[in-house]
Structures are given as C-alpha cells and as structure tokens.
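Researcher: Here's the sequence for the chain we discussed earlier.
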Amino acid sequence: MKRIIIALCVAVLAFGFAVKAQAQTESMEQELIKLENEWGEALVKRDTASFDRIIADDYIGINDGSVFAPTKAQYIEYVKSSKEEILSFVIDEWKVRVYGDAAVVIGSITMKMQSAGKEMTYQSRFTDTWVKRAGRWQCVAGHNSTIAQK
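Model: Thanks. This is the structure I predict for it:
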C-alpha cells in the first residue's frame, strides 16, 4: 500500500511539472506572437524605437536569398529610408517552436503598400529566429521569401 501511495505521489508531481512546463511554453509562444505583431505595427508606423528593442544588435535579415540587412542598424536605416509606405501588415499563419532560450517563428504575411503612388499587395513567408537574452526576447535572424502572385 505504501508503494502505491508513493508511486501515485510521484505520478502527480510529474504531471504537475509537465502541466507547468506546457503553460510556460504557451506563455512564451504568446509573447513571441505579440513581438511579431509589434514588428508589423512598427513597420506601418516606421517606429524605429520598437526595432531597437525587438531586434538584436547582431541581427541579419535576408529577403529572397539576398542579405538586405546585415545588422540591426542597417535594418533600421532601411525602414527609415524606404520609399514604400506600408499601409497594413497582417500575419496570416503562425507556427512557434520554443527551445529553451531560443525560438523559431514561422508564418506568412500579407502587406499592403504604396509605392510611387501605386498600391500593391505583397505576400511572403517568413522565418524569424529569436533568442532570450537578459530576460527578453530579441530577433537575431529573419528570412522572407516572396509568395509568387498568380
């Protein structure tokens, strides 16, 4: 009888730890989704202060196979100097994978932009790599691939 009680206690503790770990992972996933949405809002508003907080100093950005932002400073300069006005930024799909203090966010984006007086829609798939440093998540690498329009 004593062994059954001990085994039951161990099982309850193990289940409790598993539930807590799952809750922490879900919380981190929600935090990363929030940061990705803040990124989109910052693009629309050209809010470079948000990028300074969200993007790591050693960030690298790749678009359609080309490095377009080898550092955070160059990404921020790209956002400030872009001739395109981003009218809306919507993340259509999400997949978040958390690996301790690292995470990968995969999804697709639909952006409406205006360039040279012409409005257009741009769709892409993205992969962002995040690292938790000093208690906060920062993006260290981003990759976008344009979805071909039919």
